[in-house]
TrEMBL record:
It is found in: Cytoplasm. The keyword Cytoplasm applies. InterPro entries: IF5A-like, IF5A-like_N, IF5A_C, NA-bd_OB-fold, Rib_uL2_dom2, Trans_elong_IF5A_hypusine_site, Translation_prot_SH3-like_sf. This is Eukaryotic translation initiation factor 5A. Its main location: cytoplasm. GO terms for molecular function: ribosome binding; RNA binding; translation elongation factor activity. Translation factor that promotes translation elongation and termination, particularly upon ribosome stalling at specific amino acid sequence contexts. Binds between the exit (E) and peptidyl (P) site of the ribosome and promotes rescue of stalled ribosome: specifically required for efficient translation of polyproline-containing peptides as well as other motifs that stall the ribosome. Acts as ribosome quality control (RQC) cofactor by joining the RQC complex to facilitate peptidyl transfer during CAT tailing step. It comes from the Eukaryota. Belongs to the eIF-5A family. GO terms for cellular component: cytoplasm.
Amino acid sequence: MADEEHTFETADAGASLTFPMQCSALRKNGHVVIKGRPCKIIDMSTSKTGKHGHAKVNLVAIDIFTGKKYEDLSPSTHNMDVPNINRQEYQLINIDDGYLSLMTQDGNTKDDVKLPEGDLGEKIQEEFDEGKDLLVTVVTAMGEEHALTYKEAPK
């Protein structure tokens, strides 16, 4: 019995990776988890109820990190997981070995965010090499963290 009292110690301050929401309450441009991935809903339609069934919601969504397209069909009365998404801006202070070195609001450094692949990563590297002050937006969802956008810091 004594072991059961400590089952919640590993939780992250009570923060959950997802929360349930009834399918009929989801909206376009909102977020949803499809096939275990955090996605942004780009299209949704509801079919009429059948002779014996529930209205079905057809969701089309894009993975917020990879851009991959997913589709899902679910009864409108069922719950679906919605990812908790956190968006944070950091000042870029260095790029080292494929990782961004970022300064947090409280002055600490954060060195565990990868330089994005493709055009975005190349542009960040290029503008950083030109000596520009950059603010990088890091999005965290379901235990993953990615730099998704950046802008030049105001002077």
